[in-house]
Amino acid sequence: MQPVRIGSRLVGPGQPTFIVAEVGINHNGNVELARKLVHAAVASGCDAVKFQKRTVEAVYSAEDLARPRESPFGTTNGDLKRGLEFGLSEYTEIDAYCGRMGIPWFASCWDEASVDFMKRFDPPCWKIASASLTDVSLLKHHRNTGRPLLLSTGMSSLAQIDEGVRTLEGESLILLHCTSTYPTRLEEINLRAIPRLQEHFGVPVGYSGHEVGLSTTLGAVALGACLVERHISLDRAMWGSDQAASVEPQGFARLVKDIRAIETAMGDGTKRIYDSEIPIMEKLRRR
Q1: Could you give the CA distance from residue 72 to residue 222 in angstroms, rounded to a whole number?
Q2: What SS3 state is found at 165?
Q3: What was the pLDDT predicted at 287?
Q4: What pLDDT is recorded for position 151?
Q5: Helices assigned H by DSSP within 31-174
Q6: How high is the pLDDT of residue 169?
């Protein structure tokens, strides 16, 4: 199983966990809030930040967009979806800000036009959302970019993941174990799927979590997740569908610190007597 290169970093077996703070749509359509979320991710010690990009009319039907839905942007679902989308000027600002902050960024693109839009920012990789795992046309469009791919596996059967991996065959690929409920219940997180996916597909496997709390994400790292992705929020009580399943800046800083501690504590698996134990051994063992 070979590591995958994302920008300047190798991600996979034997490498430090790659930690992604997903801004997603938690910016609520406000580029200043997006900058604050990027700043919080950098301060927490994250390795990258991630956004989302959709061409609204390509992803949603006219009927779905016309559905009544109250939001700060209007009274229809279309008002909400369009209000949450950043365009060229906003992403140009984000690209410049991430450059100044020294953190890589990329996006989940939900349609082919969004992939083409994001190419101008030269992302180090692409994230394919769980909802897009069965979208063969979109998978092929990502594959043709020649960039590393992160494929999330929420709401997907093993057979569907098999088909997705076959479609992307030949590309640098990391699978992300995921359960697509917000927030995810503990009994549905199923962390033991991480080593199972590693064994079945022979590629690095990470974890994309939507649960409340941090302990289960740490468990994912202990089980071999080479990359972890959690949503970041300035305040989980803010308006927005993903805020409640997110992690606030103080929690993200703790998560990063604890992941690094786990990496050190995992060791190499070889049982040995440490030099620090020898005086204790001489003191406590019966002669």
Answers
A1: 41
A2: helix
A3: 82
A4: 98
A5: 31-44, 56-59, 62-66, 77-83, 88-101, 112-118, 136-143, 158-167
A6: 84
Q: Is the pTM of this model over 0.90?
A: yes
What's the rounded Cα separation, in Å, for the pair 243 and 96?
25
pLDDT per residue over 85-108, tens digit each?
999 999 999 999 999 999 999 999
pLDDT of 19 strictly over 90: yes
Tokens of 187: 């009994």
8 A C-beta contact, residue 189 and residue 136: no
Residue 258: other Cβ atoms inside 10 A: 15
The rounded distance, in Å, linking the Cα atoms of 109 and 94 is 16
Put residue 19 in one of left, alpha, beta given phi > 0 → left and psi -120 to 50 → alpha.
beta
Place of tokens 């970041």: 232
**How many independent structural domains does the chain possess?**
1
The pLDDT score that the predictor gives to residue 179 is 97
CATH code at position 220: 3.20.20.70
CA angle 88, 85, 183 (to 5 degrees): 140
Instruction: Quote the CA–CA distance of 126 and 19 in Å, as a whole number.
Output: 15
Residue 1, CA atoms < 13 Å, CB-side half-sphere = 20
Structural domain of 188:
4-284
Sign of the dihedral defined by the CA atoms of residues 5, 125, 153, 252, in that order: positive
Pairing of strands 105-109, 9-11: unpaired
Taking residues 70-84, report their average pLDDT: 95
In whole angstroms, give the CA distance from residue 54 to residue 29: 13
Cβ neighbours of residue 111 closer than 8 Å, sequence gap 6 or more: 54, 55, 58, 59, 138
